[in-house]
Design a protein that fits this description.
The complex is a heterodimer of chains A (280) and B (400). Chain A has 280 residues and is α/β, with parallel strands linked by helices. Chain A contains 11 helices and 10 strands. Chain B has 400 residues and is mostly helical. Chain B has 16 helices and 10 strands. Classes of the chains: A alpha/beta (280), B mainly alpha (400).
Chain lengths: 280, 400
């Protein structure tokens, strides 16, 4: 049997380049400390948009604003044309926003299978009484969604870990499972918070391949944050560099690599004269 | 295509409660064994079998254990599966117990002299509606579930120790209300009779013939409890392996991440409390039917802690563990009494004053000691021990 392609498992979107996520002039501060200071960005369908910046620049804060965990004080965040500021995180997830986390946030006491099935939560519709009796509809829906999950397990090549408890798995595999869980939600927008953090070269290459496949086969928007500049520059269509919550440059990877402000933010003032290519 | 017999080739079989015919067979054996245990001397199939069946006080404890198992499954749903530590279980048990007693009990009136007129008047001492078990038992569950619905919003903002503390308050409020509402509960030290367990005329609290077999009242209650336990046990098991059960586990493990996966926290915490309280209500309504009398003071903090102990010692987030824990904790006092009969346990005295420790003290010591020992040495509880034994024999004689 041939392994199924991703777009045979999950709904593929039209990668027409129309705006999917529009963030405009967002400000967020904690007790006077400005975490995000006027960030504007647009993620289009079928695009990989990367946000880079030194530690503490506010990259994860942007993610948390999109997910609905933080509520920005000023600005607007529109997803699919809808204002999502102030919406509950689970409602935003229902709209089609899925994410992974910088520090893995899997459910450690559940198996890989259950973690991925949790990703299918919003695609399972039976209620509590049906769950208790588990007859007909509930059993049918479970089986159908299990098929989707199995497809994702195949795609990520984690078949042998299917029934393992997540807490027992090595770090690299956990990162993969977390990507799978987000993918299982069949999102329109995928937020990847440092998918390659702490990974070796081989694992990073695997992760990059998964991201490329997802982008090409599903045509969904991907917002990526990572410190691995080789990966970011290879994958991204557009890169936004931020520092202390302020946007300093936006453009194609080539433009960003040559940008003096970006080099200064990363390496400090004195090195700003160094070879632009070496900054990455 | 013919597959190897027993090969799992369907996603439904893969998540079934019994994944093989062997598992099904052993469950049937267990069930038959429990039924034979309960039948006692009434069914002399094999000579000598009577000696191994439950009689007298052991049977009475077994009846309590079966009903307690239902309550323990309930607590495990909210505390084990959903991770919301609740010390308020005794309150929900009490709500169920008194609802059952009011709907299923008999009204008690008394002639009293009205001081203003000097005339005799009828006054209701206890409210009772004499309804059938088929009505008052579900009603007891629903009444408790409704209280769960009201209490659940507390868990929306609190978790862990803070939630435990607030639910602790619930027990004290409940105890106070149960004491003061004497027309419903009978009041302190007096109490009232439990609801009459009568199902379409079949009395479970009186000895009599059922299907040609003469059963004592405890035997009847035992089988009633067993039937309910099997049904409610499977319902809980189904819930655990559904989208609801997974959502509860997700909230227990990482609630913020769960919310970002599209799980509405408030809704699922509410479901956990409602379902858990329903189980508690049903268990509470039946728990004292073997004795026949309810006392408002029995729904106190100690009862809540007993149920917490059942869950912790039995096995957190498992249905079979809840049952093991409930059986173990219910039989513990009897076990201590039995041990006290041996010379090496001579320091346990069965007189209330003499000896080094009395029976009641020894129970409490064991109770606390066992919780500590299990938490440190076997966090998975009796269920964990069972899994290890099972895995050993699966591989026997090849131990590795």
């Amino acid at each position: 049997m041939r392994a199924r392609l991703l777009h045979e498992i999950l709904p593929a979107a039209e990668a027409d380049g129309s705006p999917l996520l529009e963030i405009e002039d967002v400000h967020l501060s904690f007790a006077g400390v400005k975490a995000i200071d006027g960030v504007t960005l647009t993620v289009r369908r079928g695009e990989v948009f990367a946000v880079i910046g030194p530690n503490g620049a506010g990259k994860t804060s942007i993610f948390n604003c999109i997910s609905g965990v933080y509520h920005p004080g000023r600005g607007s965040i529109r997803f699919g044309g809808r204002d999502i500021i102030g919406m509950r995180p689970d409602r935003i997830a229902d709209l089609g926003v899925a994410r992974t986390f910088q520090n893995i946030e899997l459910f450690p006491q559940l198996t890989v299978l259950d973690n991925l099935m949790l990703g299918r939560h919003q695609h399972l519709h039976y209620g509590t009484p049906a769950a208790m009796i588990r007859f007909g509809r509930a059993a049918r829906e479970e089986a159908r969604n299990r098929e989707v999950v199995e497809g994702i397990i195949e795609f990520l090549d984690i078949q042998q870990h299917r029934k393992s408890f997540v807490a027992m798995l090595p770090y690299g595999i956990q990162k993969r499972v977390e990507l799978g869980r987000a993918l299982a939600m069949a999102p329109k927008l995928l937020l990847l918070d440092e998918p390659a953090a702490g990974m070796n070269l081989e694992e990073t290459e695997d992760m990059a391949r998964f991201i490329t496949d997802i982008r090409h086969e599903l045509g969904i928007g991907i917002l990526l944050v990572d410190h691995d500049m080789h990966m970011v520059m290879d994958l991204a269509d557009t890169v936004l560099a931020i520092d202390f919550g302020r946007p300093i440059a936006v453009g194609t990877p080539r433009e960003i690599q040559a940008n003096q402000d970006v080099i200064r933010a990363y390496l400090g003032q004195e090195h700003a004269v160094a070879d632009p290519g070496g900054a990455a | 295509m013919r597959l190897r017999p027993g090969l799992i080739a369907d996603y439904r079989d893969d998540v079934a409660v019994f994944r093989s015919n062997v598992a099904r067979f052993w469950f049937a054996v267990l069930l038959v064994a429990v039924v034979v245990l309960g039948l006692g001397g009434t069914l002399p199939l094999i000579p000598g079998l009577v000696d191994f069946t439950l009689t007298g006080d052991l049977l009475l404890i077994a009846v309590t254990a079966v009903f307690a198992s239902i309550g323990a499954i309930g607590l495990n749903i909210v505390t084990g599966f959903a991770g919301q530590v609740s010390l308020g279980h005794a309150f929900f048990l009490g709500v169920g117990a008194f609802t059952g007693a009011i709907l299923g009990g008999t009204e008690v009136t008394r002639q009293v002299v009205d001081l203003s007129t000097g005339q005799f008047v009828e006054r209701t001492m206890l409210v009772g509606y004499d309804l059938d078990l088929i009505i008052w038992l579900p009603a007891a569950g629903l009444a408790a579930a409704f209280m769960g619905l009201i209490v659940a919003p507390v868990a929306f903002r609190l978790r862990g120790l803070y939630l435990a503390f607030v639910t602790l308050g619930l027990v004290f409020i409940g105890e106070h209300v149960f004491r003061e509402a004497t027309v419903l509960t009978g009041g302190v030290g007096v109490g009232r009779p439990t609801g009459v367990p009568s199902l379409f005329g079949l009395r479970f609290d009186e000895a009599g013939e059922v299907f040609g077999i003469f059963l004592s009242k405890h035997q009847k209650l035992f089988f009633l409890g067993l039937a309910l336990l099997v049904v409610l046990g499977f319902v809980a098991k189904n819930l655990a392996r559904s989208r609801v059960g997974r959502a509860l586990a997700a909230i227990r493990d990482r609630d913020i991440a769960a919310e970002m996966m599209g799980i509405p926290l408030a809704r699922y915490k509410m479901i956990a409390f409602v379902v858990s309280s329903f189980y508690a209500g049903v268990a509470g309504a039946l728990l004292y039917t073997a004795v026949g009398q309810l006392e408002p003071g029995s729904f106190n903090l100690l009862l809540s802690i007993e149920f917490i102990a059942m869950v912790l010692i039995g096995g957190v987030a498992t249905v079979s563990g809840s049952i093991m824990g409930a059986v173990f904790i219910t039989f513990l006092p009897r076990l201590v009494k039995w041990l006290a009969g041996f010379w090496m346990f001579g320091f346990i005295s069965d007189s209330p004053t003499g000896g080094l420790v009395t029976l009641a003290q020894m129970e409490l010591i064991l109770f606390g000691g066992l919780i500590v020992v299990f938490l440190i040495l076997e966090p998975l509880g009796l269920y964990g021990i069972w899994i290890r034994i099972r895995n050993y024999w699966k591989a026997w004689p090849f131990s590795y």
